[in-house]
Design a protein that fits this description.
The protein is 41% helix and 5% strand.
């Protein structure tokens, strides 16, 4: 016996390339820090998204042209990526942002590494709360230089009068 299935059950519809982009969540920190710092990666990644959504970004004379660098906002203190504009114009609002990771609830004193250090200091403390004092010889040398300059100025003033 043979069973015939209706056509929609036999073959799924072909997958669109834009579904590969919108199926995973995207980290906005990666766009703002890593992607904008690397021009080659920026053009490759955003170019793939524009190609997958069938958006013209290569030929400005043709209709529907989108400049690939329009997503780089320069109104920020540092350069930042306009993920909202990309989501609205290119992806049709289908972009899903990843939820930020929850902050650690472990106290800092319980989260040290194997050497017992907390954080990423590698056992070296790079800055302290107290201001570093200059060496004593430097203080004495600067006081002696100031005293000598004052004595020379007083002697020059005495010779003038």
């Amino acid at each position: 016996a043979s069973v015939f299935l209706p056509e929609p059950l036999r073959e799924p519809p072909p997958r669109r390339p834009i579904e590969d982009v919108t199926s995973d969540c995207h980290n906005d920190t990666w766009y703002n820090k890593d992607l904008l710092d690397n021009a080659t990666m920026y053009i490759a990644h955003i170019g793939y998204m524009l190609n997958a959504s069938q958006t013209n970004w290569l030929f400005p004379d043709l209709p529907g042209f989108v400049d690939i660098f329009v997503f780089n906002k320069t109104r920020c203190i540092y350069s930042c990526f306009d993920l909202e504009l990309l989501n609205e114009t290119v992806l049709g609002g289908g972009l899903v942002l990843c939820n930020p990771t929850a902050p650690s609830t472990t106290p800092a004193m319980l989260s040290g590494d194997t050497g017992g250090w907390s954080g990423s200091t590698d056992g070296v403390i790079r800055a302290g709360a107290a201001q570093q004092r200059p060496p004593r010889w430097l203080i004495l040398a600067s006081v002696a230089a100031a005293w000598a300059a004052a004595a020379a100025a007083a002697e020059a003033a005495a010779q003038k009068s």
